[in-house]
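Predict the structure of histidine kinase.
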Amino acid sequence: MTSDVPLHLASALRRRDYLVSRWPWRSLAYLATTLPIAGVLSIGLLVVGAPLMAVVNATRQGRPVELPILVFLTVVALTVLALAPVVSIAVAAIERWRLRLVDPRPLHRQRFTGLVARYRDAGAWREVGHTFLLGGLVPLAYWLLFLIGLLDLTLIASPWLVGDADPVIVVWTTVDTARQAIPYAAVGILGVPALVYLAGLLAAGQAAVARRLLDGAADSTALREVARSRARLVDAYEAERRRIERDVHDGAQPRLTSLTLQLGLARLDVPDDSPAARPLAVAHEQAKGLMITLRQIVQGIRPQHLTELGLAGAVRELAGAATIPVDVHADLGQPLPEVVETTAYFVVSEALGNVARHARAGRAEVRLTRSAGSLVVEIEDDGCGDADPARGSGLTGLADRVAAVDGRLLLSSPPGGPTLVRVELPCPR
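Done. Here is the predicted structure for histidine kinase.
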């Protein structure tokens, strides 16, 4: 089965049913909850920024600025910068919580390792940048959206605003009667959907920037070198795995098949009452069992239906064999690298196994999407939630498998559910 449920606001905006979906209301809630946060931050920045701009303008115009004022502004600015990493802790925590309104995909959280370490951490300063963005640029964008909305409301209400002696200025012209205002009101009504889309775009853009800045993934020279070393090890492992698979498939399997056939023919030639009949029958059964075991080993190295059907088809086979209904949504486009395909397959297989064993779920959904140079695999269920890698649910091994190909695993599993496992695998086009 396939599912076309939008994953987040940005994807919902591209759908034809956006206006009649829940997403406009979610974007409105996101914008509305931004207002008090951005308002408080903008006031704080204005207290420092307005005098500072006044001093800059005075300097540009050649007017002298007294030294005490410069010292005071310098001290205040340095104090703001010093407190910013501390204030941004709360702002970032609230933003991560609010972000679920328009983008429920889990974020890699920034670990708190102490105040001193926070001043040296690049992720903390990205959170500071997000805080200044909320207090500086976001209010300007919201003010522009408010003016556009006010203009549209004026157009709609213009027939009722026109009085007998009081003309109304509508955009670039003046209307004196309600009849003259009706066309402008019609334009205003037609502009409401565009305004809804504009609000959605603003919310989606703000959410995208917030996700970019608040994602706690670290990046340093040492980590990049570790990643490159790990990539070399993975490539060597994949080459050795393919060699073993080829040797087993082309060498050991045919010889074992021939041996099994020979034993079967020998059983036909030996009478049932012969002393050699029973040992020969046991050897024949053991050879057949060994063939099954060897086939399972080859299947574990790389499943045959993954080679034949590709990732989407193989995942649908897994969904069909699951003990609960599983919807599969696949948007992959071009063929995937073999190592990415294999890793994604085993991720889905292990995750669906965890759902069957632990989640007590009624339904599950698998989403495979390829975008921005990565393959995103999401497995979501409506079970009891509260998944914890520390309790041996298989998530630790799954994270290790994903990390081996330079990917990452994110988990969202509040008590009571739902549980969402999101895996991002590098996949250059």
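Residues 221-269 form the longest helix (49 residues).
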